[in-house]
C-alpha cells in the first residue's frame, strides 16, 4: 500500500520573492467568505460556544471579518443573538424601538437594557412621535416612578429628519446640534426611521466593517443536520442572518447531502457553507451539491481529539490544498478551519488556497467571547472548549431536555481548556492582519489571489522549525 505524505503548517515555510512593495499597506486583504458574501479581512470566528456569541459577532464584522454564532442554545436565544447583531449598527433604523409616554422611567430603563439601546423614541399607539428619551435623560432621572413624558425631550423641541434625509445631512445635524438621535418622520409626524450618532461614529471608526445592503453588520449562524435544524434555519433567516454554516464533524456524509438539499428548499435565499471536510473528493461532491463555500479541517483544532479518538483526519495544509484545488474549479470559496496558532499559519493557509480562515481558541480568551474571566494566581483566563467535549455534550443534553441520555456513553472528541485572557479582539485581529500583509509583501502579492499564485512552499526539518521560533534567548514578552 502506498501511503502518501500529508503536511501541516509547521512542516513548511513560504519562500520569499523579490518584492516591489514600499509598504505592506499596499496589500489588500479583501476576500470572499462564500459565493455571495465578501469580507474585507479573511478571518471568521468559530461557531463554538466559548468563541462566538453576539458580542464577538459584532466585533468581528466591525473589524472586517465575520462571526458565526454557535447553536448550543434554543432557537429563540439564537434568533435574539442574530437580532442583536443586526441592531448593533445601521445606516437607518427602519423600525426603531418606542416607549409609551405614560410608561414609568423604570419600565423604559428596563426595556432599553433588554433591547440594548441607549435611548428610546417616545410614541403613542399610533406611532406618532411624542418625544425622545435620551441617554442623558436616563442618567439624570432621580425618580424612577416618574412618567416618561415628564422627563423626555418633547416633540416641539426635537430636530427631526424625513425619509429622504441622507447620511451626510445627518452628520451635519449631529455636528451642529449636538444631539444623539435624529428621528425621521413623515408629514403627519409618524415615525419612519431613526439615525443615531453612534451609528455614524461606528461607520467612521470601523472603515473595514462588513455591512449588508441596509448598512447592518453581517453575521452568520450554524445549524446541524438533525432535530430542529430546518426550523432553526428558517427562524435565523427571518431574523436577518446573512449566511448559514451546516457544521458537523464529518461533513462528507449522507447526512450532510440530505441537509444541503432540504435547506436549499426551505431557505433558498441564503448562502450555505458546508463542513467540515478534509479531502478533494469531499470538496468536489459538496460543490456538485451546490454549496456556496466549504469548510475544511478534520482534527486540526486546538481542542480537538478527533484524530486521537478515531484515528481519522488529515494534516491541515494538505487538506486545504486538496480541497481548494477542486473548489477553485467550481468558484466555491474555502474556509481553513482550525489549527491556526499565529499569523504565519494564516498566510500559509491562504497561500495554500483558502479564501478565509476560521479561528477558535485564538479568540476564546478575548473580552468579546462568551463566558467569564477566571483568575488563577495573578493571571486571568477564559474557557475554550470543544463542541464535542464532555461538558458540551452535557449542556446540550440539558438544552434539548434529553433526560434519558446516559452521559457515560458519551465519547468526547474535544476537550475543555483554559486560555490566557487577551483583552479585546481588535488587538488580535490587528496583529493577524499586520502579519498577513507582511507575508503578502514577502511574496510580492497585492491580493490574496496573487498570494495563491506566487506562493512557493518548502518543507522544513525539525531543526528548521526550531530555528523559526525564538531560540537561545529568554524572551521577556
Ligand atoms: P482552533 O485551533 O482555532 O480550532 O481552536 C477551532 C475549530 O476546531 C473545531 N472544533 C472541534 N473539533 N472536536 C473536534 O475534533 C471538538 O470538540 C471541536 N470543537 C471545535 C471546529 O472546527 C473549530 O472551528
From TrEMBL:
<feature type="binding site">
    <location>
        <begin position="337"/>
        <end position="339"/>
    </location>
    <ligand>
        <name>IMP</name>
    </ligand>
</feature>
<dbReference type="GO" id="GO:0000166">
    <property type="term" value="F:nucleotide binding"/>
</dbReference>
<feature type="binding site">
    <location>
        <position position="468"/>
    </location>
    <ligand>
        <name>K(+)</name>
    </ligand>
</feature>
<dbReference type="Pfam" id="PF00571">
    <property type="entry name" value="CBS"/>
</dbReference>
<feature type="binding site">
    <location>
        <position position="302"/>
    </location>
    <ligand>
        <name>IMP</name>
    </ligand>
</feature>
<keyword id="KW-0658">Purine biosynthesis</keyword>
<dbReference type="InterPro" id="IPR005990">
    <property type="entry name" value="IMP_DH"/>
</dbReference>
<feature type="binding site" description="in other chain">
    <location>
        <position position="304"/>
    </location>
    <ligand>
        <name>K(+)</name>
    </ligand>
</feature>
<dbReference type="InterPro" id="IPR013785">
    <property type="entry name" value="Aldolase_TIM"/>
</dbReference>
<comment type="subunit">
    <text>Homotetramer.</text>
</comment>
<feature type="binding site">
    <location>
        <position position="413"/>
    </location>
    <ligand>
        <name>IMP</name>
    </ligand>
</feature>
<keyword id="KW-0630">Potassium</keyword>
<keyword id="KW-0479">Metal-binding</keyword>
<dbReference type="InterPro" id="IPR046342">
    <property type="entry name" value="CBS_dom_sf"/>
</dbReference>
<feature type="binding site" description="in other chain">
    <location>
        <position position="301"/>
    </location>
    <ligand>
        <name>K(+)</name>
    </ligand>
</feature>
<dbReference type="InterPro" id="IPR015875">
    <property type="entry name" value="IMP_DH/GMP_Rdtase_CS"/>
</dbReference>
<feature type="active site" description="Proton acceptor">
    <location>
        <position position="397"/>
    </location>
</feature>
<comment type="function">
    <text>Catalyzes the conversion of inosine 5'-phosphate (IMP) to xanthosine 5'-phosphate (XMP), the first committed and rate-limiting step in the de novo synthesis of guanine nucleotides, and therefore plays an important role in the regulation of cell growth.</text>
</comment>
<dbReference type="GO" id="GO:0003938">
    <property type="term" value="F:IMP dehydrogenase activity"/>
</dbReference>
<feature type="binding site">
    <location>
        <position position="247"/>
    </location>
    <ligand>
        <name>NAD(+)</name>
    </ligand>
</feature>
<comment type="similarity">
    <text>Belongs to the IMPDH/GMPR family.</text>
</comment>
<comment type="pathway">
    <text>Purine metabolism; XMP biosynthesis via de novo pathway; XMP from IMP: step 1/1.</text>
</comment>
<keyword id="KW-0520">NAD</keyword>
<dbReference type="Pfam" id="PF00478">
    <property type="entry name" value="IMPDH"/>
</dbReference>
<dbReference type="InterPro" id="IPR000644">
    <property type="entry name" value="CBS_dom"/>
</dbReference>
<dbReference type="GO" id="GO:0046872">
    <property type="term" value="F:metal ion binding"/>
</dbReference>
<feature type="binding site">
    <location>
        <begin position="297"/>
        <end position="299"/>
    </location>
    <ligand>
        <name>NAD(+)</name>
    </ligand>
</feature>
<dbReference type="GO" id="GO:0006183">
    <property type="term" value="P:GTP biosynthetic process"/>
</dbReference>
<protein>
    <recommendedName>
        <fullName>Inosine-5'-monophosphate dehydrogenase</fullName>
        <ecNumber>1.1.1.205</ecNumber>
    </recommendedName>
</protein>
<feature type="binding site">
    <location>
        <position position="467"/>
    </location>
    <ligand>
        <name>K(+)</name>
    </ligand>
</feature>
<keyword id="KW-0332">GMP biosynthesis</keyword>
<keyword id="KW-0129">CBS domain</keyword>
<feature type="domain" description="CBS">
    <location>
        <begin position="152"/>
        <end position="213"/>
    </location>
</feature>
<feature type="binding site">
    <location>
        <begin position="247"/>
        <end position="249"/>
    </location>
    <ligand>
        <name>NAD(+)</name>
    </ligand>
</feature>
<feature type="binding site">
    <location>
        <begin position="360"/>
        <end position="361"/>
    </location>
    <ligand>
        <name>IMP</name>
    </ligand>
</feature>
<dbReference type="GO" id="GO:0006177">
    <property type="term" value="P:GMP biosynthetic process"/>
</dbReference>
<dbReference type="InterPro" id="IPR001093">
    <property type="entry name" value="IMP_DH_GMPRt"/>
</dbReference>
<feature type="binding site" description="in other chain">
    <location>
        <position position="299"/>
    </location>
    <ligand>
        <name>K(+)</name>
    </ligand>
</feature>
<feature type="binding site">
    <location>
        <position position="469"/>
    </location>
    <ligand>
        <name>K(+)</name>
    </ligand>
</feature>
<feature type="active site" description="Thioimidate intermediate">
    <location>
        <position position="304"/>
    </location>
</feature>
<keyword id="KW-0677">Repeat</keyword>
<feature type="domain" description="CBS">
    <location>
        <begin position="92"/>
        <end position="150"/>
    </location>
</feature>
